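hey
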C-alpha cells in the first residue's frame, strides 16, 4: 500500500490524517514575531480573534530544504510515496516538494516518489486527498490513483465568500477603493479557484445571508449535468461555525446530501482571507 503525503493547507481534521496514515508537512505563519506551524500551534479561534483585533499574520511556503528533510524521514519507512500538494497557483510549496522528491529519488533509487499539483486549496485539497484515500482503500495502485486524480482534477470545485474585504485587498485580490466601497455597501465577493489554481473573483452579492445562499446556487449549476454527483461535500470556515452549518443545511435540503465534512480554515490560508470566510467544495462538471 502506497503512502499518501499532503500539506497543512488541506485543512483536514487531524483525526482523519491519523486514521488514514496520511503524512502532513506544515506550512508556517508568523504572528507578532512568533513562527507557528512546526510543532508550535495557535488554536484556530484564538488565531482569528487576533486577526479581528488587527493582528496581521504573514505566511511562508515550504522551502526545498524543509521538503527534503521531511521526505528523508518518510523514505525511512515507505517505498511508494504519493505527494498531493497545495495549488501551484497559490504557493511555491508544490515546486519545493517536486525538487525535493528528485533529490530523494536520486539518493534512494529503491523508492518511488510522485508529486501531484492538486490545483486545490483548503478542503478542496482535502477532498483531493480524500479521493486518493478512497481509491487506495479500493485496492487501486498508485498509478491508477494518479491517473484518476489527473483525469478528474478540474472537477474539484471551490467557491467561497468572505465577510471582510480588507484581507483580500491586503493580498492584492481587490483594490483598496473596491474594498472601502464594498464594505460600506455591504458587498460580499464570491470567488473560486480556476483551472490554473488561482483565486478569481466571479461575483458580488449584497448581504451576508445572500452570499451564503449564492454558494449553494453555484453548486446547483455546477452539479446539474455532472455524471457523478459525488459522495461528499466539504465546507471550511474562518471561525464562523453557524454560517457553515447554515450552508450545510441548505445543501441537505436542496440536494439530499448528508455526508458533509465541516472544518475550521487553517491559519495559513486564513491569514489571507480573514475571519468569516465560508468555502464550499464539491465535485462538479467543471470549475
Amino acid at each position: 500500500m502506497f503512502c499518501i503525503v499532503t500539506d497543512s493547507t488541506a485543512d483536514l481534521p487531524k483525526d482523519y490524517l491519523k486514521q488514514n496514515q496520511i503524512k502532513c508537512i506544515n506550512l508556517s505563519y508568523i504572528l507578532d514575531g512568533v513562527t507557528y506551524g512546526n510543532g508550535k500551534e495557535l488554536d484556530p479561534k484564538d488565531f482569528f480573534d487576533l486577526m479581528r483585533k488587527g493582528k496581521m499574520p504573514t505566511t511562508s511556503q515550504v522551502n526545498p530544504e524543509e521538503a527534503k528533510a521531511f521526505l528523508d524521514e518518510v523514505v525511512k519507512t515507505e517505498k511508494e510515496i504519493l505527494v498531493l500538494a497545495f495549488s501551484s497557483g497559490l504557493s511555491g510549496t508544490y515546486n519545493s516538494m517536486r525538487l525535493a522528491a528528485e533529490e530523494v529519488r536520486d539518493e534512494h533509487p529503491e523508492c518511488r516518489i510522485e508529486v501531484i499539483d492538486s490545483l486545490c486549496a483548503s478542503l478542496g485539497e482535502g477532498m483531493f486527498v480524500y479521493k486518493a484515500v478512497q481509491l487506495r482503500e479500493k485496492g487501486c495502485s498508485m498509478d491508477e490513483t494518479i491517473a484518476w486524480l489527473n483525469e478528474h482534477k478540474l472537477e474539484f470545485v471551490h467557491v467561497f465568500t468572505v465577510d471582510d474585504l480588507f484581507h483580500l485587498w491586503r493580498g492584492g485580490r481587490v483594490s483598496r477603493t473596491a474594498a472601502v466601497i464594498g464594505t460600506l455597501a455591504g458587498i460580499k465577493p464570491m470567488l473560486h479557484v480556476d483551472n490554473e489554481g488561482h483565486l478569481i473573483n466571479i461575483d458580488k452579492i449584497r448581504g451576508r445571508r445572500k452570499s451564503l445562499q449564492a454558494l449553494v446556487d453555484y453548486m446547483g449549476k455546477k452539479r446539474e449535468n455532472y455524471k457523478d454527483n459525488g459522495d461528499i461535500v466539504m465546507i471550511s470556515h474562518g471561525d464562523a461555525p453557524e454560517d457553515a452549518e447554515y450552508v450545510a443545511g441548505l445543501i441537505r435540503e436542496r440536494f439530499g446530501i448528508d455526508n458533509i465534512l465541516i472544518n475550521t480554515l487553517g491559519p495559513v490560508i486564513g491569514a489571507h482571507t480573514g475571519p468569516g470566510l465560508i468555502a464550499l467544495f464539491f465535485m462538479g462538471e467543471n470549475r
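Residues 234 and 261 are 5 Å apart (CA to CA). The chain has a mean pLDDT of 92.
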